[in-house]
Each structure stands twice: as structure tokens, then as C-alpha cells.
Amino acid sequence: MKRRDFLKYTAPATILPTFINGFAVKAFGSSSLLSALENAAADNDHVLVMIQLVGGNDGLNMVVPIDLYDKYQAIRPNIAIPQGKLLPLVNNVKTGLHPAMSGVQQLYEEGKVCIIQSVGYPSPNYSHFRATDIWVSGSDANEIVETGWGGRFLDTQYPGYPDGYPNDDNPDPLAIQIGSIVSPAFQGANANTGIAISSATDFYNLLDDVVDPVPNTHAGVELAYVRLIAKQTNKFSDSIKKAAQNVTSQSEYPDTQLGRQLKIVARLVAGGLKTRMYMVSMGFFDTHASQTQGGDNTTGYHAELLKELSEGIKAFMDDLTKLKASRRVVGMTFSEFGRRIKSNSSMGTDHGAAAPMIVFGDYVQQGILGTSPDIPDSGSVADNTPMQYDFRSVYASLLEQWFCVDNTTLQSILFKDYQRLPIVSGIACGTITGIDDVNNGSKGLITNYPNPFVDTTTLKYKTRGGHTMIQIFDTMGRLVGVPVNNMMAGGEYTAVFDSKKLAAGIYYARLQNGVYQEVRSMLKVKV
Amino acid sequence: MDRRQFLSLSAKRQPAVKATTTGSRTDSGISAYTGTFDTAQAVHLLKRTMFGATPEDIAWVKGLGLDQAVEALLTTVTPVTTQPVNIYGEDEHGILPGESWVNSPPPSSDDEDGKRWNSYKAWWIGVMINQGRSIQEKMTLFWHNHFVTEMDMTHDSRYIYKYNTTLRANAVGNFKTLTKAITLDPAMLRYLNGYLNSKAGADENYARELHELFTVGKGPDSHYTEEDVRATARVLTGFRINANTITTYFESTEHDIENKEFSDFYSNKKITGKTGQDGATELDDLLTIIFAQPECAKFIVRKLYRWFVYYLIDDAVEANVITPLADIFRNNNYELLPVLRALFKSEHFFDPLNMSALIKSPIDHNVGLVREFGVTFPTAYMDAYDAWDRIRSHAASMLQDIGEPPQVAGWQPYYQEPQYHEMWINTDTLPKRNQFTDAIVSEGGYGGVAIDVMAFAQRLSNPSDPVQLITDSVAVLYRIDVSDTFKAWLKNTILLSGQNPDSDYYWTDAWNAWAAYPTDTALRTVVESRLRTLYKYMMNLSEYQLS
């Protein structure tokens, strides 16, 4: 579909209520027992803004490996971005950004962007629906979790919600979805903790007390009546209105779907709303075909999407800075999956696995975590980017370093103790610690011999001590073995990887030790 | 006035009927509707005559066509084979749990009787949910709102049960017959003190309501007098209840045998006082006098109109709908079927300007929801009663408690100007509607029952096609038109989770993947969670409140 058709498919403002009572589920179940935990949230006014890139973003064309440029160019020649057009990143020669992303490049230069390479999870799902559910719930690939990771976090901070909310201490929504359907990411144990602001039009209608038009019939009269009452019953409309009215002027935003959404978020944050999490989204990343325009791979519809993303983020941060609210905000992008390494013949890419995430904000630590993704020499269309970081490690890091969540709570939210990455400055939670040089520390940790191998190969690895894990993935991202998963003393060790039952091909050995990780590519051959 | 003058004046006189709403009004009347009869008309007919419209009901009506469908809906009698049972445990008369109490000896106290209230109400909800394809249950509730009794004033659930069966038995019969039956009904005699009415000092309670609320009403053209009320009270002296047999008998020694005279509103008629058991037949004389007054037909027709069509009766509706229907009513000796037939086959009923404007009552909302979604109820009676009771009590919290209308005039939304039906919706009750729909469509359900969104979708024409799925869902759940743009938006945003609008195959693939392995939890969850979101969202929109 053409991008200009986009508007045809957005929600008509006339039909949508201003808010959906996403908080109504089981609102009368008595669940206030948890109230023992008192307003832990009140002492932290940090906000997380999530930008969902719906459809599966082609990370490899967004964050391009300059150090592997020849391999990159060879495996996707019909859509590769010319090397000379890539936007360089300060103090980093290995990585370039898509030419449409000058806004993010500039923020990176200002020290406000962290890019995390190859974020995924073991045995990834290639269905949009299931993969999205995994990302928003924070579940394992083979596990069904009904609550969302954001909802579980907010449950720990606002026990008993929605019973007794809003109240004097917490007059504001806990989470806001810009869009009509509150993301399952905000589903808590008792209720969805998010409320929806269905569209920009509706947001401004709320401020101006505009009522949507109805047909000129008896039914129209009654519909207008019910809508009026619906508006009045929204528990949060007053606090949202009040916050919005505190901001009387905003900077310029691009007139795009994302720009309009982020403009609302900035206004509410700067207006003093205490809402902790926001979700905005943009679609059309499902670029099976024509993601670049023939003749000039820097243009085309993926380029337009990345431009909208980058310009939106830049305008948002500039506006927040002017409004003196930027220090309260960290933003992150995510998509249900990346795309295949090798392009297809229709100048597109099919559903893939791991992909980079962009985290931005004043307190974000500049840098690129991880290495350029491994690209096979003679790749097949089935090849996928092996994961370097689990997406729940990113969640864990943000919860710990931005929302100042303690370790016990963290594990109750994410069910496991995930690796933490240095994404947000320790100043944010007042816990400044020595920052490890993660990337340099992640070199030369693991090798294997022989390589190529037939049946078995020996993994030789180093650990600094503590929890050490080696996961083996195939090119589909499937977890085929975990030969090491232990608390260990520092030192050098070996382990044997036995591949007798596995087909020939590329395998990845991923070593994880504290904040460090390294992915080693191994080749199994037939006798 | 010469002809020239007449013509020049007539222009000014033209707008005889003025619209009293900001919305459109229509001049359509009761001529037979001959326009399109498709899904929208079928759903309209079903939602107004029954509680909700299931996909199968809709197909059935479309198959029959308008005339036959109306005939079937009006004349089908669905016998109720159950009776309310003991769900409260210990019973003073030894009624065992699970056994019917409707023929037990009288309760010894209000407390003993009170144990049975929830049983009766839950049973009735169950009857509504299990209704056949018939107007019977909507009419039974109509008559409960018309000939009101309240359990907490009657204090005998056995009477109330009998009253309920009387309403149902006469639901679409003869209004005069029903009025007589209700006048002699033990529950009504108790509720409005008829059982105490004696010649020594006539009790006017029932007599007043018989005129004011039950027959001629108090419209602008209703001019019954206080003398009429007193005369009526004297006619009705002597009726007593046998609490053991739950029947009414006539105690002639308590009857006022003097003559009773009526005002010119009732054509100055006179009832000659009768002695002995003949005194009881004065009731027939009384009803003949009252039912000769044309206001009686008009009053009931207006009430039917507000129940089945819309609350607003402007001059055009009065002239084009109420008056001709009232004529039919009177000319047919107060038989209900001819009136209902004419109404449900009329141009006015299917006029797009009149459709979709009815705000669902709480009972219509709750019972209609579980019927439309085909919610299944437990078979164990305690569990079933528990679920029915939760649905009933939630409707009660939204202002409609069956068995307990707030007063003898019935529920305010059916008579209180100027808001009428809008009174069902306020800042307290609307969130409660949302809470109910949110809960029952969620995995945990409500009161032990839940909507099976998968089963519902499977009953639609082609659930693997997301466009068709939305179209079918909208047709069943909404009555007010929504645009194609909105339907596309629902499909894209929810069923496709925001994926490209032209990638419908993602939904189709997901549906088919589950259909191939229906026991696979992961495959089911992918589809089910999106359907839950879809239906939750649709029921949260204001459009869902309109029928």
C-alpha cells in the first residue's frame, strides 16, 4: 500500500470516544490487600515513552554495519544503502545510521542516544501477532502471559489499582496510550493500567469541549447524550485537561502520525502529569516489498518511516528541552521483530529476528551496545540476525536504572534475573557506579575449535566470575542448547558442544557474563 | 372569509405539527412497510421484540421475511417448564434444596419469604435468557412495568410467581382480560390493598391506579374524577385471598351493594349494586365502562410505543401512529395482536429516522448480551442460579431490579419527562455497564460465566476473513450505522494489530492456524486475545448502548 493511503485508515474521530475505560476490568474485585506497599512511586517522576514500530522494523537498514559493509552489501544488494550516504556516529567507526535519520544522529552526537544491537529472545516467533504479544508481555517464546510488563511494573508501584484510583496522591493515569486501544503492555493483574487518548483530534476536542457530530436522527440525539455522559465519567479527563492547559506553547513538530502523538506526550509531561509510561506507535514497517525505491536505495517507504521516526524523536526532545522537562523522559523504540538479513527479489525483506533498539534521553548513556550483527558470507534467505541481548534485559535495565526498581521487585516483574546493561546514567537513580566498558570488555571472551567442525567442537571461554551462560542458537534463532549456565569463579574454561543431532550450517554461541556478552559464529559441516 | 383570503392565510397555517426534538422527525405512519427487508431490518425487529439478536435468529428472520417473521414472533408461545427452586437452604416448610417452592404453604414471616426473592428473580432472568423466538418475554416485562408489583411490599413470593405466570399467559392476549386477571391477582390485591377493601370504608389505592396508571392514564385528554375513583373502590370491595390455595375469592358480606355512578368522562354510566356472589360481576361492568373510553386504548398504545419504538411522541406520531393504532386496538376489542402486528409491519417502525434510537434498558443490555454472544450457563442449578443472580443484581445496580420496580408507576425511564430512556444512563450507571461488559468478555468472566469469543466468531459467516468478521460483528452488536472507514479501522487496529491494512492474510493465517489445531493454547491465544479486545472495545463505545 502506498504511504499516502495511510490517512484513509486512521480512526475517524467522529466515532471514537475520547477515552476508553480500559481501567474498568474487574474494577469491583476487592484487591486492596496489596496496599501495604505505600506510594513508592511518588518519589520518582521519571517517564518512559515507548515508540512501537508496528510490522517488524528492518534494523539492518536502520543501523548499518560499516565494519561489515561488504558482506552487508553482498547479501542485500538491491536494497543496501550506499556506504557514502550512511550517517556517521561520533566516536564510532563501525556503525552508520540510515541517511533519513539525521535527527537521531544529532541526538547521538549530543550524548543522548544509546543503540542496543541485535535485541531479541531465544527461539523467536515470526508471526506479527504472537511476536507482539511476546514483546509486550515479556514472556518467553513458548509461554503465554496475560499481563504486560508495564502493567506488572505499575502494579508494584500502585498496589490495588484500579480500586481507589484516582486519589489525592495519584490523581493522574498511570499509563497513557496515544491510540484507541490500550496496549496489552499495560495490562496489570486486576486491570489495564493504561487509558487511551484515542487520537490527536480527540485530544484537542477534549481541551476545547468539542463534541463529535452525530446523525440528524433520534438515534443521533441519543448517541450524543450517551457520549456526553461517557465523557463525564472519565475519571482522568480533568487531570489531563489541567496538565495540558499548563503548557501554552510548544515547538514545531513534523505533521506526521508520530509527530502528532509525541507532541501530546510532551505537553502532558511538561504540564506536570505524573503518568509514568506512555505508548505511541507507528505502522507500516512490514516491508516485504519495495522498501527502497529503485535507483536510489536511500529513498522509498522504509526511508520515509525512518525519517518520520527520527524527526519525531528529535522534535520531541527539542520541545521537552525547551519546556525544561527533558530530564524526566527516557524514550525507547521497539518492534515485534527485525527482518531477514538477505533481501528478497521484490526489494523487500521478510520477517526476521533480532534487531536494534534505540533508547534516548538526557540521562541515557551514549554508545552502541554490542557488535555489528553477524552476516554470513553466502547467506540463504532463511538466515537471521542472532540475538546479542534479550529484550527483557533492556526492560530490566530501564526499570532498574530509570525507575529505580530494586532487584527483588525487578524479578517479580520480569520473572527472571535478566542481564542488566548500562543504558541509563547512574545519576538518574542516584546510584553512580563505575561504568564498565561493555563493548571492549566483550571481546575475545569465546572461541571454538575446531571450526568448521563435524560433530563436536570445544568452546573455550573466559569469565570474570559470577553468573556465566552460553546459549547456542541456529540461524532461525532457535535455542538448541545451553552448555553452560552456572555461577563460576573467574578464569578460563572449556565446554564441549555436541551437534550430532543437528543439521549442518551456521550456529551461534552466545556467552553472557554480567554486563558482558559475545556471540561467536560456528560452522558445522558434513563429513 | 373569501376564497382569496383563505389561500393567503393557509400558508401561515401550514406548519401544524412542530418537531419537538433537535433530531429529525418523520411523518411516516402505520401503512405496511414495503421497503428493503435485510439484515438491518431483521436485527431491528429482533432486538425490539426479543432480548438481543443472535446470528441464528437473524438468519431465521431473514429466511422468513417480514410478514412471517412478525407472525411467528407474535404468536409463538414458549411454555416455561421450570419453576423457581430452593437455593437458600433451610426452608420452614421442608422444601428441599433444588425443589420448587411455588406451591408451598404460606411463609410465616417476611424474613422467611425474603429468602426466596433472589431465587424468583434469578429464575426469571433464566427464563428471559432461554426465551424462544417470541415477543413473549419482552411483553411479560412490559406488563411487569405496567401492572407493577413489588416483592418487598407483597411479601409472598408464591403470589409473585403466580402473578408472573399470569402476565406471561396474557402477554399478547386481550388487554381487558389481563386487566381483569390482574385486578383479581393475589399479588396485586396484596400490593395495592385490594384484599382489605371493604364496604365499611373503601380503600381507594387500587381504584386510583386502575384509572391513573393501568387503563386511561392521566394524559391531557384523560378526565376521570375523584368520584370515579371512589365509585371504583366501592365496586371492588369484597375480594379476599386464600393464602393456602393462592387464589382470590369474593366475600359478599364485605361488598358495597349500593349503586355506583361515574362521571361524564365515563358517559355518566351507572353500575347497579349487586348482592351475594353476583357482586363480583360488578368488576365486569366496571371494565366495560372504562374500556369504552377511547383514552384507554390511546394510553396503552402510547406506552407500547415508548417500549418498542422511542419515547418521543410528537404531534405527528400521535396523529400518524398512536391514533390509528388505538383505533385498531378498540375495534378489535382490546386484542393486542392486531395492534402489535400493525406496529411491527409499519413504515414507521422501519423508518430509518426512527430506528436505532432506543437506549437499552439494563435488562435488555445484560440479557441481550448473554443471548447474542451465546454465553453458556452451568447446568448445576446452584451455579446457574448464581450466575443469573449476578446478572440480575448488576442490572439492579444499573437501576432496573426485576420484581422491584421503584414504585407503582414502574421504572421512571418509561414515563418521566423529558429525559425518559436517557435516565438509564448517567455517570454512575454507564461505567457499570462498561464494567459488566469488560468483565464478561475477559478470561475471568462475570458471575462464573464468560463470553466465548471464539465460539461467537465461529457462528459468523466467515471469521477467517477479517473484513467479514467485522461486518458481521457490527451487524449483530450495533444498530446505529458505522462507516466503512470505522469498520476498516477496527479491522486494522485490532484484528491486524496495526499491521498494514492490506495484509488481511495475517488474520486469516492466524485464524486458520488455530482452526487446524483447536487445542493449541498458543495459537488460540493469538486469535482470542484480539477478539476479546475487539468485542470489549465495541461494547465500550456509546453506540453499543443503542438498540
Show the helix and strand layout.
The complex is a heterodimer of chains A (527) and B (547).
Chain A: E1 47-53, H1 59-62, E2 63-65, H2 69-75, E3 87-89, E4 92-97, H3 102-109, E5 113-120, H4 128-137, H5 149-157, E6 175-178, E7 194-197, H6 200-208, H7 218-233, H8 237-245, H9 257-270, E8 277-282, H10 301-322, E9 329-335, E10 355-361, E11 367-369, E12 389-390, H11 391-401, H12 407-414, H13 438-441, E13 446-449, E14 456-463, E15 466-474, E16 479-488, E17 491-498, E18 505-513, E19 516-524
Parallel strand pairs in A: 1-8, 1-9, 5-11, 5-12, 6-7, 6-8
Antiparallel strand pairs in A: 2-4, 3-4, 5-10, 9-10, 13-14, 14-17, 15-16, 15-18, 18-19
Helix pairs in contact in A: 3-10, 5-12, 9-10
Chain B: H1 3-13, H2 39-49, H3 55-64, H4 66-75, H5 110-114, H6 117-129, H7 136-146, H8 151-154, H9 157-169, H10 175-183, H11 186-191, H12 205-214, H13 226-235, E1 239-242, E2 247-250, E3 260-261, E4 270-271, H14 282-291, H15 294-308, H16 315-331, H17 336-344, H18 362-372, H19 381-397, H20 429-440, H21 453-458, H22 466-477, H23 484-495, H24 505-516, H25 521-540
Antiparallel strand pairs in B: 1-2, 3-4
Rg of Cα set of chain A: 24 Å
Quantity of strands of chain A, as a count: 19
Q: What is the average per-residue confidence, as pLDDT of chain A, rounded to a whole number? A: 87
Low-confidence runs of at least 5 consecutive residues of chain A:
1-42
The geometry of chain B reads as globular
Q: How would a textbook summarize the main sheet of chain B?
A: 2 strands, antiparallel
